[in-house]
Specification:
Helix content: 40-55%
CATH architecture of the domain at 20-136 and 203-231: Alpha-Beta Barrel
CATH superfamily of the domain at 20-136 and 203-231: Aldolase class I
CATH class of the domain at 20-136 and 203-231: Alpha Beta
Strand content: 5-15%
CATH topology of the domain at 20-136 and 203-231: TIM Barrel
Strand order of the largest sheet: 1-2-3-4
Distance between the termini: 59 Å
Order of helices and strands: HEHEHHEHEHHHEHE
Radius of gyration: 20 Å
Number of helices: 9
Structural class: alpha/beta
Shape: globular
Length: 234
């Protein structure tokens, strides 16, 4: 129902949610509609008061809080927005994990991190800071051949990724895309196993929230305090 010629806002504003109470009503309406067979995730941007917002979301009944940090966004996101809006995902995850633990509700919901994840080491850091899981977008696109030209919205992706043009789609057969993403994920998995082994850990579950395995290099005292990590050498 968007008038022709007008902009489509993404993400669209949710005029039915103006408070945690409104969110609680929506979450339980979704659970009722799905007969409590589907999990309900609430995705929010990583901002300065993200810990308080996440606490409200968990208390509203969400099964997971999805944090989207600095440098997250679509392939067409303006560079100025991607590099300057929000806070680093590491700070957001650490703050949310600490807040939920302090309130005794950390076991009520999962924390899923995204935005700015570029390699397997980033995954390891986020898990150690308290995330239960991560998800990726840009690395998968790059693995498929994306050159980050930031013109996804034109529908003329030369690699056949963000397009519905039959001629362009042929440039990236599904079986080829599958193989590329498979190689990416399994390559990261092998690297993560090596890092876990170097830490003396034999399971990713043992790393979650284990900030003693991390050390800071080039961070300020405030950043280290938020992250809950020690300086390198200590």
């Amino acid at each position: 129902m968007i008038p022709v010629g007008s902009d489509a806002l993404s993400p669209a504003p949710h005029h039915d949610i103006y408070s945690i109470e409104d969110l609680r009503g929506l979450i339980f309406a979704l659970k009722e509609a799905t007969e409590y067979k589907k999990l309900v995730f609430v995705k929010i941007a990583a901002v300065h008061n993200v810990a308080a917002i996440a606490s409200g979301i968990v208390r509203a009944g969400a099964d997971a809080v999805v944090l989207d940090g600095l440098k997250g966004g679509t392939g067409a996101a303006p560079t100025m927005f991607r590099d300057n809006i929000g806070i680093p995902i590491e700070l957001a995850v650490a703050a949310v994990d600490e807040r939920l633990r302090a309130e005794g509700i950390r076991n009520w919901a999962s924390i899923i991190a995204s935005g700015g994840i570029r390699n397997s080491a980033d995954v390891i850091k986020l898990i150690a800071l308290g995330a239960d899981a991560v998800y990726i977008g840009t690395p998968a696109l790059i693995a498929c051949g994306c050159t980050m030209c930031q013109h996804c919205f034109t529908g003329k992706c030369p690699w056949g990724i963000a397009t519905n043009d039959p001629k362009l789609i042929k440039r990236l057969p599904p079986e080829v895309a599958y193989e590329k993403i498979y190689n990416l994920v399994h390559g990261w998995a092998h690297e993560m196993k090596e890092m876990l082994g170097a830490m003396g850990i034999n399971a990713i579950e043992s790393l979650r929230g284990n900030r003693d395995k991390l050390r800071a290099v080039g961070l300020t005292e405030t950043e280290m305090q938020i992250l809950g990590v020690k300086h390198a050498g200590l």
